[in-house]
Amino acid sequence: MSREVLIVEAAALDAFAAEAFRRAGVDEADAAYCARCLVEADLRGVESHGILRLPIYVRRLRGGAVNARPRPKTVSGAGALEVMDGDAGIGYVVGRAAMLRAVELAGEHGIAAVGVTNSSHFGPAGIYARLAVEHDMIGVAMSNVDAKVVAPGGRLPITGNNPLAVAVPSFGEFPFALDMSLSAASGGKLLLAAKKGETIPLDWATDAEGRPTGDPRVAFEGFYQPLGGIKGLGLSFVLDILCGLVTGGPFGRQLESMYSSAAPTRTGHMMIAIDVLRIVPRELMKGRMAAFFADIKASPMRDPSADMRVPGERAYSKEMQRRADGIPLAPGVLDELAELGRELGLTATLAPKAGPAHTSG
Amino acid sequence: MSREVLIVEAAALDAFAAEAFRRAGVDEADAAYCARCLVEADLRGVESHGILRLPIYVRRLRGGAVNARPRPKTVSGAGALEVMDGDAGIGYVVGRAAMLRAVELAGEHGIAAVGVTNSSHFGPAGIYARLAVEHDMIGVAMSNVDAKVVAPGGRLPITGNNPLAVAVPSFGEFPFALDMSLSAASGGKLLLAAKKGETIPLDWATDAEGRPTGDPRVAFEGFYQPLGGIKGLGLSFVLDILCGLVTGGPFGRQLESMYSSAAPTRTGHMMIAIDVLRIVPRELMKGRMAAFFADIKASPMRDPSADMRVPGERAYSKEMQRRADGIPLAPGVLDELAELGRELGLTATLAPKAGPAHTSG
Known about the structure:
The structure is a homodimer. Chain A is an alpha+beta fold and about 350 residues long. The first copy, chain A, has two domains: about 1-65 and about 325-360, Hypothetical Oxidoreductase Yiak, Chain: A, domain 1 (Orthogonal Bundle), CATH 1.10.1530.10; about 70-185 and about 225-280, Ribosomal Protein S8, Chain: A, domain 1 (2-Layer Sandwich). Chain A has helices at about 10-25, 30-45, 55-65, 90-110, 125-135, 185-195, 215-220, 230-245, 280-295, 315-325, 335-345; strands at about 5-10, 75-80, 80-85, 110-120, 140-145, 145-150, 155-160, 165-170, 175-180, 205, 210-215, 225, 265-275, 325-330. In chain A, the strands form four sheets. The first copy, chain A, has a seven-stranded mixed sheet with strand order 2-3-4-13-5-8-9, sandwiched between helices. In chain A, strands 11-10-12 form a three-stranded antiparallel sheet. A two-stranded antiparallel ribbon of chain A has the order 1-14. In chain A, α4 runs parallel beside α5. Chains A and B meet through β2, β3, β4, β9 and α8 of A and β2, β3, β4, β9 and α8 of B.
């Protein structure tokens, strides 16, 4: 197995993933879209939702747990509030349909919410929030996921590290784009600490009995803690309610992981679009967002060489840089993709752009 | 100054506060409403937003920083998205008008959002979220406040410990009711730790230079840290955008504290109502909320004698108990209220219900 970080061109990853999705039964346009979503995550530095997820998606599509050609349709609601059945489809396609419907309804009503039931893993919530921004609207996107978060004092998980994204048009270089989960830390951060042999803060994770742990290796056998204790727990409950309980899907501990079950996850989402230009003229909005960004960036830091960033700025810069320089893949990922390619008999191949950037691990 | 916790009947506090508001120029119905809001906070255990705020409200009403007889009116928007000008009115009255308007519009459209500009401190955000629940809707209420929260690595505050509340009808004994601010800890928690001579977690507060501190007394001279680091900071920015930036009011560091300025604060709010019964029949919603509550309460705890609570449950129990037994007031509060009563020449007086409950401090 390769132990080096290798650089691959975004376009090569894109073609590879698109062919894999097609081979798994997804039609051409949707396959291209799903591939773009994965590669965009890698471009933006959200590797945990990038190309490394391709094998599990393909496996679930081929196994029938995810419907490759879903026909999402509205099943209840009226006016600016609807629920869509995702037809057990791939979350990227269902989530896009739901946010586009929310944008359409917000165009009529000013604000709209479209809940989704019977979907599947939809990747980074930020995709859908930023989709609303492409239509000059504020976007809010949420999903529920299987329960991995232990309440303060609890012994077992009670809610998911549910993702929440909010994006706001700036009419400038990049939008405000917050994209987070409601756990204190992500699996990626635990992995990094484990690799470096560092301890983690005691409010990030627990052991398998729910006891807070500072050892990231113990945390891998355990669970997450909620963002900021009971406040983040409460917010995660809100997402359980909006994505699952009111849409008619499973909620809380009823959800199963796509990694542990071969059945559909029946994931729920909630997409909200706000047609902000109804209440603020575009030029005024642009000016205020520029002032807001400038104010954040001018905020004095304790370390004068440190840089305060607007939510979404780091991901935007990374995307610009990686579009030019290529995407670094963690050791092993390229091998796994090559194996997937052989298994599917893909014509696309992945060759590193250049020699190893630096060794790792 | 009295050093004892004294118990006062809710009705007595209510009458006292209502007369004080009337004397400060508020009309009879609004005065009764504002008084009820303050006493309800004490009943629910949110003492930081209870009767102890009466003196500052009265001072600002009499000083003209807050308009005692506001005429809130819609100034922009259409359909299900509007902005209301609060006419520099007392936040309780303006906030109620905005949420009632959101409920009205959600009745037409299914979901609605009413932003508010030119308002003032509106107390606990939960009031407005629960107001939507009285109309069988999901309520979301937010406000911006003056900047008191330092970004990770920052030296000075950049956003407020902005409050966010979400309430969901359960059609049972009490609604789901989350009511929080986006700082890691409240001033009340710092005060408690200082009184007990305890240290505080390093991610709660900073000194006056933005350096994290474990000493609550140092923290009083400093600032708050955001809930869960950059995630809570990002959420607080979202509230700055929704409450201030898009409504036309001040945002971020532009806001001033009602304690440090004699001018109107021009506070902004955002009220969202969701007519959930459009997508879930009432009995189904009731059954699912009961199942959700039961699932949360059945979550195993590490300490088997510990109790897992649903958001809003503790406040509800406390309210039931305090309505029966009276409200304990912290040492000094009764003296301050008595002084306010003399200053305003109130006929209402506050006598402790019984002898001291227990000594404190």
